[in-house]
Amino acid sequence: MTLGAEWKFSQVFGEQTPGEDIHDCDILSAIEFDKNGDHLAVGDQGGRVIIFERQTGKEGLFDRSSRRDSGQFNLPLWQHPEFKYKTEFQSHEPEFDYLKSVEIEEKINKIRWCTKLNRSLFLLTANDRTIKLWKIKEQKVKKVKQMDINPFVTSENSLLADKSFVSGQSEPSHANSTRLEWTDKMNGTLPSHLADITNVASRRCRSVYAHAHDFNINSISNNSDGETFLSGDDLRINVWNLDVREQCFNIIDMKPKDMEDLTEVITSAEFHPFHCNLLAYSSSRGFIRLVDMRKSALCDHSVKILQDGGSRGPKTLFTEIITSISDMKYAMDGRHILSRDYMTLKLWDTHMETSPVATYKIHEHLRPKLSNLYTNDAIFDKFDCCLNGDGLQFATGSYSNHLRIFSCGSENEDGITLEVRKSPNRKPTSQATTRPRRSSLSNLTRGFYRQGQDSSENEISCNLKSKLLHLAWHPTHNLIACSVGSSLFMYHA
């Protein structure tokens, strides 16, 4: 698939109407496909998780019109995957830490799928301080068809009393009717002609991993061993066993003895895709550290440090802010890493420590406006990045709801830019005003902090309130899911 391939709109869930007000709790905050691409999980700032599943019978069809236009008659054209709503549940609730007098928001920061077992789905969800393991399982439920019940007959005998339903005789209808439900625990005792059998997704919280982070959790990552996962906050990275929720093992601790000596914080962490002993984590200074857990139980001293030696130049007040890595992803080959900072998208080869393989400019046009971006807090926005299955194409978001797609080795350094919305002629709606920004360790490391203010945005060419922060690439198809406010958009090529 070349970069010149045309990207088209596929689906949208929760589309906003023009002029519709968006509540903060409805804004999407995390997106993740499972390993096979059969399910998609989305989290929002209200602590909810919504699950979508892939529709069956939608692929392997011949697109005759496209084949006729392209002149190719010997190769079948596969349709892109389509998804449908499956279920949703409340994963996290707002909490309050009385010992530290800190309010813990219910916002879902990260979602990660675990190994599927016995047709049951498992996924990890995290807010600022707590991680939960959820199990989603489909159960067959028998629901009694709607029928009139004699109010003088008890519910246990109502089926026997209602002869009119079985024989077809007419009887006086009653205003109050009863609908009974039987699960598969009844062993099919209800006659099939009286019941509708439907699949219902039940969910249950299997484990809660709490009280291990003093700072906001920014990363969770499953290990390839299928037994452990890591969780990272601003200063620490812990390793958990999925079956042990009472304790974890701290492998990295960057907290100095005196917090005034703090120079950098952890921004993202991820396990290697198939080596269970390797992991990588990024920092606010633009470094990526590669760690081998076999060398030492405490991994504070990293094996390799990936840094962009070519970016050294005159430092300004905003240099450290714009070089802070907001997201990092391993490619499936395990050798390459994709990282995103405020200005650029970079592809790294773990065998080359001094510079990235490729650098794609995202916000270069905003460099003269860094002062304005700092004044209104836009410079602290954290954009996600993602790769396709073969690691040759990359995507990230930008302002004005723009989706940026790049290809490795392509002569087009600017890539493809799509404005994410269903109707091209519709004016994009702005996101709701977010909550006032709270001070974070990332700001403390730079020695300054300012409260967000309304600055003159007419000097900036893009719409800073409409921003595409979160996105994910389907593992086997050229399909990208991305969020705009409270809407989930999908594009395919």
Automatic annotation (TrEMBL):
<protein>
    <recommendedName>
        <fullName>Serine/threonine-protein phosphatase 2A 55 kDa regulatory subunit B</fullName>
    </recommendedName>
</protein>
<dbReference type="InterPro" id="IPR000009">
    <property type="entry name" value="PP2A_PR55"/>
</dbReference>
<dbReference type="InterPro" id="IPR015943">
    <property type="entry name" value="WD40/YVTN_repeat-like_dom_sf"/>
</dbReference>
<dbReference type="GO" id="GO:0000159">
    <property type="term" value="C:protein phosphatase type 2A complex"/>
</dbReference>
<dbReference type="GO" id="GO:0019888">
    <property type="term" value="F:protein phosphatase regulator activity"/>
</dbReference>
<dbReference type="InterPro" id="IPR001680">
    <property type="entry name" value="WD40_rpt"/>
</dbReference>
<feature type="region of interest" description="Disordered">
    <location>
        <begin position="417"/>
        <end position="444"/>
    </location>
</feature>
<keyword id="KW-0677">Repeat</keyword>
<comment type="similarity">
    <text>Belongs to the phosphatase 2A regulatory subunit B family.</text>
</comment>
<dbReference type="InterPro" id="IPR036322">
    <property type="entry name" value="WD40_repeat_dom_sf"/>
</dbReference>
<comment type="function">
    <text>The B regulatory subunit may modulate substrate selectivity and catalytic activity, and may also direct the localization of the catalytic enzyme to a particular subcellular compartment.</text>
</comment>
<dbReference type="Pfam" id="PF00400">
    <property type="entry name" value="WD40"/>
</dbReference>
<keyword id="KW-0853">WD repeat</keyword>
<feature type="compositionally biased region" description="Polar residues">
    <location>
        <begin position="426"/>
        <end position="444"/>
    </location>
</feature>
